Amino acid sequence: MAIATEQALPRILTGIGEEPMAELESHLDVHGPLPDLRRWSPEQIISVVERSGLRGHGGASFPMATKLRAVASRRKPKILVANGTEGEPASKKDRVLLRELPHLVLDGAAIAARAVGAGEAVIAVSDVDERSARSLELAVDERQHAGLRGDPQFQLFGAPERWLTGQESALVNVLNGGPGKPTFGPRPFERGVRQRPTLVQNVETLAHLALIARHGADWFRLLGTDRDPGSALVTVAGAVSAPGVYEIEHGMPLEELLQTADGREPLSAVLLGGYFGTWLPGAHIRGVRLAAEHLAEHGASLGAGVIVALGQSACPVAETARIADYFAAQSAGQCGPCTNGLGAVADTVQQLATGTASAGARAELARWGKDIKGRGACQHPDGAVRFVSSALRVFAEDFDDHARHGPCPRCSHPPVLPATPIPAFPVAR
Ligand SMILES: Cc1cc2nc3c(=O)[nH]c(=O)nc-3n(C[C@H](O)[C@H](O)[C@H](O)COP(=O)(O)O)c2cc1C
Ligand code: SF4
Predict the structure, then answer these.
(1) What is the pLDDT of residue 264?
(2) Number of neighbouring beta carbons within 10 Å of residue 265
(3) pLDDT tens digits along 325-362
């Protein structure tokens, strides 16, 4: 593996807008061929990933090498699932990757499959995302015709378009012919698709792996921070004139990103990390850097890279009430604290928003937040209560105002946070 000295961005988004990157020829012209994977032992690949510090980009930021080891150490035949379902309504980065850079994802899948000893790789996309499916289909065909060595057997799969489908055990369940609900039993790395040890990895994580295989672990660490090396794709939305998918260096100042996206108006807050994320008050944006070790000081994380700017013309209470309803509706309805708890949270937030809540409503919400946390089979309820608690804290005055006087004039403004999938965003060039 050659170690390049190139430090600049873009990395993942290189060539987009200049070359037809979805085509194999352009992909190889821009990135060069993958090294011959058959000459790498699984342990060699895993140790490069370990040294690179690559973490997952699907939301939990889990170290990839740890997962690779867990799956590789199992005896039975393995399988890889590339998670491109992107159920978060405000996120668009995975769709951009699948549509515009399918070969980067397939390269990464080939390397990850080799690392764990999987002969098959399933690329899962949303079943309404026809453009991504088409782009992947063409890319897989091209690779087969070109006789690329080292590819596993690729298989495309359309998963039901739902928030929960992307949760790894739910996705495995769907792939096994069941409903798209998280399961309580063994984890996918123990027993997953067709009872095989299964590595589930976000498609962006795989795209970074494709570049690490070409340029090395040290190259990857030339950008970013100690805890969060490298770059990340982020989807920027809300009160900006240039919403879209951007590639940032981990540690980039949030203010700089918002300026790049042409922030439009004074902001009341910024949502960091998407719907499972945390609100940061507009007055606290200065000095915030987009890397785990910096965001932790604000109780936030980058999650799957969704960043939404909330302008002062939007009503944070109405936004919170709508998303709390969305969370309740997305529960898989199989764990009591999630099914009943999120419904009660949504109803109470709705009452606060309309000025019909009881005097103890907020204390009740705080209590439920603690009771619900950690009591589901998946992290859905934890993420939901994190979002609501953060809104209650950051927008305390707005909630007071609504509790006393009912809806404000801003409540009727068009929603900022989508509660159903929204059309594709442009890619920042
Ligand atoms: C409710 C819920 C929804 C999720 N949706 C997605 C998704 O759409 N895409 C994704 O890659 N990961 C999603 N995840 C995370 C996956 O469970 C899993 O951690 C991830 O695919 C692993 O890939 P990574 O380690 O490369 O991030 C979701 C998790 C939860 C709890
Ligand atoms: S915690 Fe909620 S969403 Fe997760 S499995 Fe249980 S009921 Fe379903």
Answers:
(1) 82
(2) 14
(3) 999 999 999 999 999 999 999 999 999 999 999 999 99
Ligand nearest to the CA of residue 63, numbered in listed order? 1
Pocket test for ligand 1, best of 83, 128, 200 (most atoms within 8 A of CB): 83
Domain boundaries, the chain: 24-220, 231-265+273-311, 316-412
In CATH, what number does 24-220 get?
Answer: 3.40.50.11540
Distance CA 237, CA 416 (A): 8
Architecture of 231-265+273-311 per CATH?
Roll (3.10)
Q: Which atom of ligand 2 is nearest to the CA of 342?
A: 2
What does the H/E/C string look like for 17-66? CCECCCCHHHHHHHHCCCCCHHHCCHHHHHHHHHHHCCECCCCCCCEHHH
pLDDT of 424 above 70 = no
Q: What is the pLDDT confidence band of residue 1, given thresholds at 50, 70 and 90? A: very low
3 state SS of 32: coil
Tell me which fold the domain 316-412 belongs to: de novo design (two linked rop proteins) (1.20.1440)
| Whether pLDDT at 427 is above 70 | no
